Amino acid sequence: DDVADDMPPPPQNRGQRASVSAEAYGNWNQVKAFTPPVHPKTPEQVAKLATILNASFMFSSLDKKDMDTVIGAMQQRDFEASSRIITEGDDGEHLYVIEEGSPVCKKKVDGEEKVVKTCGPGDVFGELALLYNCPRAATVEAVDSCK
Fold first, then answer.
1. Domains of the chain, CATH where assigned
2. Pairing relation of β-strands 104-109 and 124-125?
3. Which of 7, 25, 28, 130 would you call most buried, defined as having the most Cβ atoms within 10 angstroms of its Cβ?
């Protein structure tokens, strides 16, 4: 009798288990070999990108081969002063690393765009929409010429 009193109560029924799924492959959805894009860069650009990306939590644990793949896939984009780089609410397709210039990040607050951050060379932006598969969290505009 004493032993029965010391036993924990039986587990409660938590309800139905959540489903688990994985991508299905068949004739309609073939697995294809991935060939990453490679855009030419100078050795200086490669070194600069490696330094910046190694400081980022998203890329710091990549091995050399994977880091080289990421850097090779990056391409330079030039933005003139006053041009919009990304727009709040849009789908995200790219991550940006600033080489030159000082773009500003703006958020809509009470219907008006307010500057929430000024970026500079070495800063990275645009990763949130890619990481969380969500719309862009802010608008980014070039104040001056940006690479």
1. 38-76 (no CATH), 78-146 (2.60.120.10)
2. unpaired
3. 130
Nearest to 92 by CA among 50, 56, 60, 138: 138
Do the strands 104-109 and 84-86 form a parallel or antiparallel pair, or are they unpaired? unpaired
Q: In the Cβ-directed half-sphere of 54, how many Cα atoms lie within 13 Å?
A: 9
Neighbours of 68 (CB within 10 A): 15
Burial class (CB in 10 A: 0-12, 13-18, 19+), 119: buried
Residues 56-93 have pLDDT tens digits of: 888 999 999 999 999 999 999 999 999 999 999 999 99
What is the spatial distance between Cα 16 and Cα 1, in angstroms, rounded to a whole number? 34
- SS3 letters for 70-82? HHHHCCCCCECCC
Residue 88 contacts residue 134 (beta carbons within 8 Å):
no
CA 141, CA 71: separation in Å to the nearest integer? Answer: 24
